[in-house]
Specification:
- This protein is mostly helical.
- The protein has one domain: Growth Hormone, Chain: A, CATH 1.20.1250.20.
- It is built from 15 helices and 2 strands.
- A two-stranded antiparallel sheet has the order 1-2.
- The longest helix is centred in the first third of the chain and has 31 residues.
- The radius of gyration is 20 Å and the shape is globular.
Length: 424
């Protein structure tokens, strides 16, 4: 028998040392991740002249672990010390990413190596994302979950604003391979911050070695029996398939069709990402003003059809449709995610957050590598613009279901409070 972290009385966020460490470490890691998000595609497109298929494979590599390992990673998070798991994931990512500039310095870097580095970093990111929800409930009180999620998502969006521009400049000033070293350093900083967080044991003992298969079945049963989680699972998976599909080809489109340099690509990506920052900042206020259910619907509708602006870009002034569309998508998608994340952290018992998150990630995030591969194949066969239009259209269509009876909370003002009845 062992003890497991659980929600306990915690100081307000402004005086919460553990949360500040978690927030700072996560923010540093996210800045490095968002820098690499533009550096790796630039490395493939500029240095290796990658085809659309290779670009699709590179994007798929980052998300493939969610499809292959999501269930087992969720069970691992629930049965392990959350902090230690996150530290191990950070250190793994640091080693994998550092291998890229090392191979470049030795003149041994290849395109398959770049793809494998994206795969390894994606596996580490999977564990970190799944562990974040139970980690937050471990260091933050229930009343502060919206504010804590707003800060985490806001920091992620801020990193998406700063990271791509910084990555573009680093590619111009240094090289793409060397720029990736900054991400490896950020992983080490995150690991140190996690190491300094104080543990908070619960008084309720749980079995140390619960069978993985049982944990996966329990998580699947919980999601499938809950109408809100079930809807989020299906709509989120299809939406993400389209979202990541057009994003997988976006850098290649800006390089080959719009003839933008690395600095402009970083600038466009940063401007678009500012929408996510705004969405994270306004989400708590939107939830209070409109209600959490209505707020999630309104923000979700904003972040859907506006994606169609992106593939309508063309050389000249129309190139600015890319950051404009991405900005609006970011406001809607990230804002809705903040509200839904806080709901799920209250709705799902703390000792089931990992397995429930793992089950949902297999579908909601596991469709992303599929979307990337489909986009890469279709982009090579039918062209970049038609493929991006089709993918953006799929994302838009999924968001519109929020305003129909297909969405279980479309007529509610607020999402349910307390624990799910499925929790027993």
């Amino acid at each position: 028998m062992t003890t497991r972290p659980a929600p306990v009385a915690a100081p307000p966020l402004g005086r919460n040392r553990d949360f500040r460490l978690l927030w700072f470490g996560e923010g540093t890691h996210l800045l490095g991740t968002m820098t690499t998000a533009v550096v790796l595609p630039l490395l493939a497109a500029r240095d290796f002249h990658a085809s659309p298929m290779w670009m699709g494979m590179l994007s798929a590599a980052s998300w493939l672990p969610w499809l292959l390992l999501g269930l087992h990673a969720g069970a691992l998070v629930d049965r392990s010390d959350t902090r230690r798991v996150m530290i191990a994931a950070d250190l793994l990512a640091a080693v994998v990413l550092a291998s890229v500039p090392v191979a470049w310095a030795l003149d041994r870097l290849t395109l398959p190596h770049v793809v494998l580095a994206a795969l390894g970093a994606g596996a580490a990111q999977l564990v970190l994302r799944l562990a974040m929800a139970p980690m937050l409930t471990r260091v933050v009180g229930p009343a502060d979950l919206e504010a804590a999620n707003s800060r985490i998502y806001g920091t992620e969006s801020a990193a998406q604003v700063v990271g791509p521009g910084l990555g573009g400049l680093m590619v111009q000033w240094l090289t793409a391979a060397v720029a990736i070293l900054a991400d490896a350093v950020s992983c080490v900083v995150s690991a140190v911050c996690l190491w300094r967080i104080r543990a908070r044991p619960t008084s309720r003992p749980t079995p140390k070695a619960e069978p993985v298969g049982r944990a996966i079945r329990d998580g699947a049963r919980f999601v499938l029996h809950d109408p809100i989680l079930r809807y989020t699972l299906v709509s989120g998976g299809l939406s993400n398939l389209g979202l990541i599909g057009y994003q997988a080809l976006l850098v290649l489109y800006m390089v080959r069709e719009l003839h933008l340099d690395a600095g402009m690509i970083g600038l466009f990506t940063s401007i678009g990402s500012a929408g996510g920052l705004l969405g994270a900042l306004i989400a708590p206020a939107v939830g209070r003003r409109l209600g959490t259910a209505r707020g999630a619907v309104v923000l979700g509708l904003l972040g859907g059809p506006t994606a169609l602006l992106i593939p309508l870009a063309a050389p000249g002034w129309r190139a600015w449709l890319i950051p404009a569309g991405a900005f609006l998508v970011g406001v809607g998608v990230v804002g809705a995610n903040v509200i839904r994340s806080a709901f799920r952290q209250r709705w799902v018992p703390p000792d089931s957050l990992g397995r429930v998150g793992g089950v949902m990630s297999v579908v909601a995030m596991g469709t992303m590598p599929v979307g990337s591969l489909v986009a890469g194949w279709a982009g090579a066969a039918y062209g970049l613009v038609p493929t991006m239009l089709a993918m953006a259209g799929l994302h838009a269509l999924c968001s519109l279901t929020l305003a129909t009876p297909l969405c279980p909370f479309w007529r509610l003002r607020d999402l349910p409070a307390g624990r799910s009845p499925a929790a027993g």
